[in-house]
Amino acid sequence: MRYALVPLVALLFASVTRGQAVDIAVEQYGWMKATGTLPTEFNLLYPTLPPPRVQPASGRDRSSGDCNCWVEPDSTYALAMEPNDDNSSAQITLPFTFDLYGDLYTTCYVNNNGNVSFLLPHPTYSASGFPTPSFRMVAPFWADVDTRGAGTVKYKMTPNALYVNWIGVGYFSEKTDKLNTFQLIISDGTNTDVGIGSTVSFCYKEMEWTTGSASCTELPGGTTCSNAAGSYSCNDFDGSEPGFCGTPATVGANRGNAVDFVQFGRFNMPGTAYDGPFGYPDEVGWLSYKNFVFSTAVTSSNIAPVASGNSLCDTVRLCVGDPVSLNVDFLSPEQGQSTTANYVIFPPLTAPVTVVSNGPGNTTNLQLQFTPTVSDTGLYVITYTATDDGTPALTSTVSVVLHVAEVPTIPPVISGDSVVCRGGSVQLTASGDYPFYEWSNGRTGPSITVPPGTYTVAAGPMTCGLLSESFVVHEAAPPVPVIAGVLFNCGGEPTVLSTTEPYDDYAWSDGGTGPSISAGTGTYSVAVTNEWGCSATSAPVNVLIASAPTAFFSGDPHGEVFPGATVSYTDRSDGNGATIVSWSWDAGTLGGGSATTFTTTFDTPGIHPITLTVTTSEGCTHTYTYSQLVLPEEIILPNVFTPNDDGYNDALVFEGVQYYPNTSLQVLNRWGQEVYASSNYRNTWRPAKDIPDGTYYYILKLYNGKEYAGHVTLLR
User: Fold this and answer.
1) Would the N or C end of the chain have less CB density within 10 A of its end CB?
2) For 403-416, what is each residue's pLDDT tens digit?
3) Strand pairing report for 175-187 and 161-171
4) Torsion of CA 479, 485, 488, 493, to 10 degrees
């Protein structure tokens, strides 16, 4: 159900002077707006941004056949204002003169709430219908825009146009569940993006909301409304869906004299229904992806019908065999007027054309349906003509070129390398000899150079191509070579270096090309290539091949000593070209040291190992051990031994003889017969069982010539 409009009383800067108005800071304004406590006269104390410099004239040319009216903001755009609610830009000086129904302007303001105004900025968030004497503005979507939660307002100037883009903007208060994107261009009639002879272009992308919560109370019957799609609310405090109902948004232009204006509609509901500029409030989705181009350079309120539709490119490209539906809307901007539309195609198409039209009416839709045949291949001109019933009657004419092309029968096939190294690219080529190729990444031409990804190509006449199968370019992981091997060698021999994994090709820094190299002292790296042709270089490694030292020392006194003797040992090691930097002596329980000499006293007879370990400045070591012999002063002679295998006194033992080398022993029986002899006796003789008990005589001779003779008793 639709409701009649009850316009708000607008808050006008036009009625305010500095002497009467109350200054309101931005921090106070939002709360006062939400609670309905704004004073009648006030000045908003917003910071403003300086205007951008004038950019070169627009390079976009509608003769290219681009149907999209949207001019994408780029680096030439400037921010009109910081995120805000109801703010305006600083005054902008236009590099051209804009004609608003006979009033000429060279300055303007960009208002956050979806419009550009002249003479004064406007914070007014509840839109009025046109015409009205209170506002001088061009309004692509006058509503309660709030960019504090989402969206930006950007603009740029060229010598003949001002571009303003509201990009993904939310609504009061800081709502972002629905967003609107739309664009305004005003010009002096010479800008090709607007169209030669036209002064204003409205362009829309997705349009999702109409009303901020501060404009809810103006709707008769409460704050909710409904249509076939459901029940809605502009106020989000009652749990209903916000962003709709309340005071409608206004689309149009207004001179401010209550006479000269254009209005394309007022919107306060979701959906796509539309009953004309002056019927009930319409559904905002009807605006999505529409474009209105018109001229305000007239002095009469009688305006020719305005065309809108997605088939108004300079060239519409069609394919043989594809059903075509061309839609054009003609709006009568004046209330009560009615428009009739018709068309002519020259030369005539062979295919029959079905006309679907709901005119005449305040809004007339002309829809043409046909399916081009092979005999229709070529260029045609379709001329749309719309005439209103105003006084005088005015006519709008729009001519569009139709280019009908035949679809090829064989789809293109993509060829090229299917694997590419990380950071690299490959060339893909599409088969065939078609006049046009368009790739999935937006590039055109039979060949493209691409990184890893999935690609398709359509080939044929413009827009009538067949689509190829997908071609996947895989990314190959680069090799990560790591050098393995002994990097420090004290033997003086070269080491072997290799990589921890095998590769297809090797290039060592020393010139080697195999999987391993023999390396001496130096720094080495290797560049490798894997099976996919991807290359990488290892981190460098440092190899040190050092000579090992030879440890040695001498003792003073030299040779064997007796208990109580003190021996001083002196290092005699050879570094073999390196410098010995440390010494480590180890004599077990007798101690150790770290100097070049070591001195110790021996108290007990025996064999005492003395060890020296030396280390060079390169970290190589070597160890030498000398067995120090400490001889007993006397040999203890036995008088009896009992070789009965009881583990006690089983052998003939001369205590102390084990420390003497080359000690000879001869044992004789009482008849002088030799029963045992040894040239290096080690206290090990155990008589065989056939040797009877009794007294035996021995002669023990030490290596130094000392001799012991005596007898011993053998008892079992």
Assistant:
1) N
2) 898 888 899 999 99
3) antiparallel
4) -130
3-state SS assignment for residue 371: coil
pTM recorded for the entire structure:
0.56
Residue 27 DSSP code: H
Asked if the bond preceding 173 is cis, omega within 30° of 0, the reply is yes
According to CATH, the topology of domain 640-714 is Immunoglobulin-like (2.60.40)
Position 59 scores a pLDDT of: 36
Give the number of residues written for the chain.
716
**Is the four-CA dihedral 665, 667, 668, 670 of positive or negative sign?**
positive
Structure tokens at 368: 């043409």
Check: CB of residue 342 under 8 Å from CB of residue 364: no
Q: What is the distance between the alpha carbons of residues 128 and 112, in angstroms, rounded to a whole number?
A: 16
What does the mean pLDDT of the chain come to?
87
Position 23, amino acid: D
Q: How far is CA 691 from CA 537, 640, 643, 687, 711, in A?
A: 83, 15, 11, 6, 16
* C-beta of residue 529 within 8 angstroms of C-beta of residue 424: no
How far is 305 from 434, CA to CA, in rounded Å? 42
Tell me if 306-405 shares its fold with 553-630. yes
For β-strands 200-204 and 92-100, DSSP reports them as unpaired
Q: How many CB atoms lie within 10 A of CB 491?
A: 12
Give me 238's structure tokens: 């009652």
Are 30 and 85 spatial neighbours (Cβ–Cβ below 8 Å)?
Answer: yes
Angle 357-360-362 (CA atoms, 0-180°, nearest 5)? Answer: 110
Q: Domain ranges in the chain?
A: 13-47+75-294, 306-405, 414-476, 483-545, 553-630, 640-714
Lowest mean pLDDT among 53-57, 288-292, 468-472: 53-57
Per-residue model confidence (pLDDT) at position 124: 93
Cα dist. 260→127, 296, 336, 559, 712 in Å? 17, 9, 15, 130, 151
Helix (H) or strand (E) holding 601: strand 597-602
Chain-centroid distance of CA 660 in Å reads 84
CATH fold of 553-630: Immunoglobulin-like (2.60.40)
Provide CATH code, domain 306-405.
2.60.40.10
At 533, give phi and psi (nearest 5°): 85, 10
Q: Cα(13)–Cα(144) distance, rounded to whole angstroms?
A: 17
| Max Cα-Cα span within the chain | 170
Q: How far is the C-alpha of 428 from the C-alpha of 378, rounded, in Å? A: 31
Q: What is the distance between the terminal CA atoms of the chain, rounded to a whole angstrom?
A: 135
Q: Rounded CA gap, 232 and 213, in Å?
A: 12
Q: Which of 516, 517, 520 is nearest to 493 (CA)?
A: 520
**d(Cα 227, Cα 502) in Å, to the nearest integer?**
71
d(CA 501, CA 509): 18
Question: Quick one: how far is CA 617 from the chain centroid?
Answer: 50
> How far is it, in rounded angstroms, from Cα 28 to Cα 37?
10
Measured CA to CA, the distance from residue 468 to residue 396 in angstroms comes to 43
The two tokens of residue 218 are 């103006």
Per residue in 316-374, pLDDT (tens digit) is 888 899 899 888 888 887 777 888 999 999 999 999 999 987 678 888 888 999 999 99
Poorest-pLDDT segment among 93-97, 267-271, 275-279, 510-514: 275-279
| Paired tokens of 714 | 């053998």
The residues facing 85 across adjacent strands are: 146
Q: Is residue 641 a contact partner of residue 714, using CB atoms and an 8 Å limit?
A: yes
57: number of Cβ within 10 Å: 14
Are β-strands 419-421 and 324-331 bridged in parallel, bridged antiparallel, or unpaired? unpaired
Evaluate whether 14 touches 121 at the Cβ level (below 8 Å).
Answer: no
Residue the block writes with tokens 């404009």: 215
Q: Tell whether the model's pLDDT for residue 13 goes beyond 50.
A: no
pLDDT (0 to 100) of residue 38: 77
